[in-house]
Write a structure and sequence with these properties.
Length: 124
Amino acid sequence: MDEYSEARNRMADYYDENLAGISEIQTPKRAGNSTHVFHQYTLRVKNGKRDELQKYLAEKNIPSMIYYPLPLYKQEAFLQYVEEDFSLPVTEQLCEEVLSLPVHTEFNQEVLNVIVTEIKNYFN
């Protein structure tokens, strides 16, 4: 299990290092006093370009996923517990901006390089 966690963290490190210079995205923040096992590597894509980036990646056969398209409090199962005028604007904004990149322990450096290169190509 530890080797899978380490492999996922190495992938996240690679994404962090190689996507850092793209101003239109924000990579996940990590606290120095904790560890994380990246089941997902979720970016924040700014300027309303999330859906376009996802489409571009799909055209390049690179999977990505929007896991949280709707805040929990807006989902049918929770509507009865929320006041009609309730809102969480930051949550709603994040639901429109986040996109998860693939994280698989079987990926090698070449696969990660293709993903990063295509993201850079999209923003250039």
